[in-house]
Automatic annotation (TrEMBL):
GO MF, one example: aspartate ammonia-lyase activity
Segments forming domain Fumarase C C-terminal: 406-457
Keyword Lyase: yes
GO cellular component: cytosol
Name of protein: Lyase
Residue ranges annotated for the Fumarate lyase N-terminal domain, each copy included: 10-335
Species of origin: Parasutterella excrementihominis YIT 11859
Gene3D superfamilies in the record: Fumarase/aspartase (C-terminal domain), Fumarase/aspartase (Central domain), Fumarase/aspartase (N-terminal domain)
GO term, biological process aspect, one: tricarboxylic acid cycle
Length: 474
């Protein structure tokens, strides 16, 4: 053990630990969960990137000597690359970002000292004086939040692009598979399976555009605002240079928040951003749920689609294996929706000049990105490639729909169409057979009007109505 000191006194810290006295105090005082900061390395890495950029800035403005600045930056990069065994065993429910910022300051300082002298405490680098120079938790953490959210959106965007591509491929593959359309779980008019899958792709392309727009706006920095956005404690020249260095570290342009006070108080940005994540998860949820319903069976369900399961050794019913995969997608999307409440309540708990006093919202965002990424992977790699169709069954059900009498209603009016529909239901025959039985049109005309291959394309139906407009009596 080593003895460290702060304004509250002295405390022993394990010799192996790169964290220091503030982290140890937080660890002892807030031990209410096994979930700790180190379970979210992306947040730690974001703060370490800020420390590297700030060290460069403080060197440039002459506030930090070259030896210390280079050691701090090297230590920060080693944290980012996980090149040594650091830990931050502070409970995630500790509260705001102060323990994270203080903990990274300690880890970087002790490693920087070790780089200089081989000893964690022998290099003269202090966590607050040098690593945290011209910074505070209140400008570091909102900036780290922006970095994390930017990266988490990328985690979602890339597999989303792959899922959209796979949906388009399957849409093309099943473009000629005609099936029953359903509204309110009741028989509607025919549609192709390809049209349904392409519709999901179109909706997800909308989400992709929104998420890419969101990502482009998570490039802000609050650095230089220090405690409340007024800049007190910020050294001359720091604010004007730090974001250039941070941009270099991150590999994309970072800009100062227009109003630094607002930047520290803002809670609406993450709420709105996660709303777009929830919107995508709702589409993924619906896709999984609809495929599961279409695959219901094997004897008493819809059985429109099925899945070619390669290794169902432990499944009495091979299709149950695929159904469980879809269920896992649905469950993951449910978690994303639940995370929205965590974000909302966590952000609302900020008081006065601090936007949030909880790390739960960012934890929820990270969890949502992870869940959604894996859900989309299951769909792209496991479910959609193995999807097969009972084409004849789909066609038979599509031809039996009494909603196909819409074609008759359009020509003769609602009452005649209803008459055909009622006869089809009463005698358990197809609408085509009912129309022929009522002799409302020549058989060859009825055959063409009820050919389901014509009923899934607007231009085909318009051509039919134009062709038989002389029969129209309204």
């Amino acid at each position: 053990m080593r003895l460290e000191h702060d304004s509250l006194g002295s405390l022993e810290v394990p010799n192996f630990a790169y964290y220091g006295i503030q982290t140890e105090r937080n660890r002892q005082a807030f031990d209410i969960s096994d979930l700790t900061l180190e379970d979210f390395p992306s947040f730690i890495e974001a703060v370490a990137k800020i420390k590297a950029a700030c060290a460069r800035t403080n060197l440039e403005i002459g506030a930090l000597d070259k030896e210390k600045a280079q050691a701090i930056e090297q230590a920060a990069w080693e944290v980012i690359r996980r090149e040594f065994d650091y830990s931050l065993p502070v409970c995630i429910y500790r509260g705001s970002g102060t323990p994270l910022n203080a903990g990274v300051n300690e880890v970087v300082a002790h490693r920087a000292n070790e780089i200089l002298t081989g000893n964690k405490e022998g290099g003269g680098i202090h966590p607050s004086t040098h690593v945290n120079m011209a910074q505070s938790s209140n400008d570091v953490i909102p900036t780290a939040k922006a970095i994390v959210v930017h990266d988490q959106l990328e985690i979602i965007i890339e597999p989303l692009k792959v899922l959209i591509k796979k949906l388009r491929e399957k849409g093309e593959e099943f473009s000629s598979v005609i099936k029953m359309g359903r509204t309110g779980l009741q028989d509607a008019v025919p549609i192709t399976l390809g049209q349904q899958l392409n519709a999901f792709a179109s909706g997800m392309e909308r989400s992709l555009s929104r998420l890419e727009y969101e990502k482009s706006h998570w490039n802000y920095s609050c650095l230089g605002g220090t405690a409340v956005g007024t800049g007190m404690g910020c050294l001359p020249g720091f604010r004007g240079k730090v974001n250039k260095h941070l941009s270099d570290v991150l590999g994309y342009e970072v800009k100062a928040y227009d109003d630094l006070v607002d930047g520290m108080m803002a809670i609406d940005d993450l709420i709105a951003c996660h709303g777009q994540v929830v919107a995508l998860s709702a589409q993924v949820w619906k896709l999984a749920r609809d495929l599961r319903v279409m695959a219901s069976g094997p004897n008493s369900g819809l059985r429109e689609v099925y899945f070619e399961v390669k290794n169902p050794e432990n499944a009495l019913n091979p299709q149950r294996f695929a159904s469980c995969s879809l269920e896992s997608v649905i469950t993951a999307c449910n978690q994303v929706s639940a995370n929205n409440s965590s974000i909302l309540f966590g952000l609302k708990n900020g008081w006065l000049d601090l936007g949030a006093c909880s790390s739960i919202p960012l934890r929820a965002m990270i969890n949502s990105a992870t869940m959604l990424k894996e859900a989309m992977r299951i769909l792209t790699e496991e479910v959609l490639p193995s999807m097969r169709v009972n084409s004849q069954l789909c066609q038979d059900m599509a031809e039996s729909s009494v909603s196909n009498t819409t074609m008759i209603s359009t020509i003769f009016g609602y009452e005649v169409g209803s008459q055909v529909a009622h006869l089809a239901l009463e005698e358990n025959i197809s609408p085509r057979e009912a129309a022929k039985k009522l002799k409302i049109l020549p058989d060859e005309v009825i055959d063409e009007l009820f050919d389901v291959s014509n009923l899934t394309h607007p231009e085909n139906m318009e051509a039919l109505f134009e062709k038989y407009k002389d029969f129209r009596k309204l």
